[in-house]
Design brief:
The chain is an alpha+beta fold. Helices cover about 55% and strands about 10% of the residues. It has a domain of about 180 residues: Alpha-Beta Plaits (2-Layer Sandwich). Strand 7 and strand 8 form a beta hairpin. Helix 1 packs antiparallel against helix 2, helix 2 runs parallel beside helix 23 and helix 25 runs antiparallel to helix 29.
């Protein structure tokens, strides 16, 4: 019989429970929650046994530093244009065939995500896949979820495939005697099986389960259902707007109404940043609901023009020099939690927000006061010259433009492409075949990237998802507390006492896979692996006979890459949430069966390749 937990254990369990609640509720961001955990553990040191110098070791852990370095290396490869070139070639090869497009999406994203961080891969592939969908008369909904899932599956191929792999390797080296971590290609055989089985599912079963949330080949304004929120009015001689500068006039209105264009005879001027004075006879293209436009026209003596349909073509015709641009807020966006008004978005980017898509719902009204969330997709209208501002800012990912004319010409590769690719391969091979650990080879790779001008220091620092770094550094002390107080061992004893006699060892491996994957769907894969690996190793060590704890570590590691059932489980899931128009339940419908299939496949694979019973 398992004795009752000690006071120290109960305190750590309470901190863990509060942490999980905060992760799920997202009252504050996960990285802030993790830092709060770090502080709490030090304040409660008499019970948690985590001193200040121990708590901050997460910032110096090899896992944290390796992940930081891998973000930088991935950026160096990304800037060569190799991934963009691959996208262009895929567009040429698919020829608009539905099966080819899906096969190209899955077949390239998975292997690529094994060596390059999958977040930038997905960021680059979203607009390419959207264009392919339009050219093939397909709904982008049919392709974007497989894109995210394939990127996640590819992360199981190598140690550097995902951050969770690196965290698991670090923990395995600390907890398992005689093991220094996980080798670069140690679990690649099982990763290949997982990728193959997952790809077959995505190519055969998933297309029947994924709904067409966005209809195929729609005008971009139809996609966002903004036709009823666009109208044109003519300025009369007696209008109160006559004689005012366009932007000044509308900035001071205080209405849920924006001016998109000023049309004067054959000239079109794009708002917001135009210094043109409004003159009698000018036509204004407005964004607002019909009632607001009616009130505005009556108050300012404007003549509403017949309900001529304002389309994407009329807003972004080449001679107008205007662009309709779709952008997504990635999980790392600093904009999340703020409103467009607080950000001065219109002035900052010289762009008007026409609508906000959040999953399958579209927001058209009170846009300026809508609090932005990670995963939101915004439809913008701006001058062509303003598009580089959006691309350079780094807080937004462009996923679609109305003026896209299908597959682009092949981009020219950087002169340093061979250098950058060679450095990345050198990092991987050196970690695999020399005595140097991945943290050292990765840092050496970053130095080489900077010294050879493949990457400058500012680009390197900007490439890092610092929220992930702080999340990891903050959550690792909780893993330490679970071990130091005996809390992890206590849970392991409970598992052994309840299940050891009724469940075979391989069944326990499957149980930890299931628990970790479920946890990863509601918090983050990194946090779930950091919490579950110590418990899994403790359970293996408590079982009778000779049981290999590494089998349990692998179950948690692979489970951390299968957060398929929610858009919040993994950042690439959130990135395709808006562009695909998905609902929360779509992830459960498509990802649930895949997660169960991989539970069986991974468990059996571990049983064959790393038998838990010696």
């Amino acid at each position: 019989m398992v004795p009752p937990p000690t006071t120290e254990m109960l305190v750590v369990f309470a901190v863990t429970l509060v942490t999980l609640v905060l992760f799920v509720s997202e009252v504050v961001s996960p990285d802030v929650t993790a830092l709060g955990v770090l502080v709490s553990l030090v304040v409660l040191e008499p019970w948690t046994e985590v001193a200040a110098d121990t708590a901050i070791l997460g910032f110096a852990s090899s896992a944290t530093i390796t992940i930081m370095a891998m973000y930088m290396l991935s950026e160096g490869v990304q800037r060569t244009g190799v991934v963009d070139l691959l996208g262009v070639y895929l567009a040429r090869l698919t020829h608009g065939d539905e099966k080819r497009v899906l096969a190209a999406t899955v077949g390239t994203t998975g292997p690529l995500a094994g060596i390059v961080n999958n977040t930038p891969v997905v960021a680059v592939f979203i607009p390419m896949i959207t264009d392919l969908a339009e050219d093939s008369h397909l709904s982008p909904s049919k392709l974007l979820l497989p894109l995210s899932y394939a990127a996640m599956l590819g992360g199981t191929l190598t140690l550097i495939g995902t951050a969770t792999n690196i965290v698991a390797s670090d923990l395995a080296g600390d907890l398992i005697a005689g093991r220094t971590g996980i080798g670069m290609f140690e679990f690649t055989p099982l990763g290949l099986v997982v990728l193959l089985v997952g790809s077959v599912y995505l190519l055969t079963v998933a297309p029947r389960l994924i709904p067409e949330r966005i209809e195929a080949v729609l005008d971009i304004t139809d996609t966002y259902e903004v036709s009823d929120y666009l109208a044109q009015v003519r300025v009369r001689e007696t209008s109160g707007l006559a004689g005012q500068r366009l932007d000044d006039a509308f900035r001071e209105l205080g209405r849920d109404l924006d001016a998109l264009q000023l049309i004067r005879e054959d000239e079109v001027f794009i708002a917001p940043k135009t210094d043109r004075e409004i003159l009698p006879g000018d036509v204004l293209t407005l964004r607002a609901n019909l009632q607001e436009i009616n009130r505005f026209a009556e108050e300012y003596d404007l003549r509403q023009l017949p309900r001529e349909e304002v389309t994407g073509d009329s807003l972004s015709a080449p001679w107008i020099r205007g662009e309709l641009v779709e952008v997504v807020l990635p999980p790392s966006a600093a904009f999340a939690g703020e409103t467009l008004r607080e950000l001065s978005f219109r002035e900052r980017f010289d762009a008007s927000v026409m609508a906000i898509r959040r999953g399958s719902s579209v927001i058209h009204e009170e846009l300026a006061d809508t609090t932005l969330e990670a995963g939101d997709t915004l439809l913008l209208y701006c001058r062509t010259e303003a598009v580089p501002l959006l691309e350079a800012d780094g807080e937004l990912v462009i996923t679609r433009m109305a003026t896209d004319d299908g597959p682009a010409d092949a981009p020219e590769l950087s002169a340093r492409t061979p250098l950058a690719v060679s450095i990345m391969l050198g990092v991987v091979l050196a970690a695999a075949f020399t005595r140097f650990p991945i943290v050292i080879t990765a840092l050496a790779g970053v130095v080489a990237m900077v010294v050879t001008d493949c990457l400058d220091t500012s680009e390197a620092y900007d490439a890092v998802s610092w929220d992930v770094i702080f999340l990891l550094a903050g959550i690792l002390p909780l893993s330490t507390a679970l071990q130091a107080t005996g809390a992890a061992e206590y849970i392991a004893d409970l598992v052994v006492s309840v299940a050891a006699s009724a469940v075979p060892v391989l069944g326990l491996v499957a149980l930890f896979y299931l628990l970790t994957s479920l946890l990863a769907n509601v918090i983050t894969p990194v946090a779930s692996v950091a919490l579950m690996v110590p418990v899994a190793v403790g359970t293996a060590q408590q079982l009778p006979g000779t049981v290999d704890p590494f089998s349990f570590v692998l179950a948690c590691t692979f489970a951390g890459s299968t957060a398929f059932m929610t858009p919040i489980g993994y950042q690439t899931n959130l990135m395709v949430y808006g562009p695909g128009g998905y609902r929360f339940t779509d992830y459960l419908r498509v990802g649930g069966p895949l997660q169960l299939v991989l539970l069986v496949v991974t468990t059996l694979g571990i049983g064959v390749l790393w038998p838990p019973l010696g």
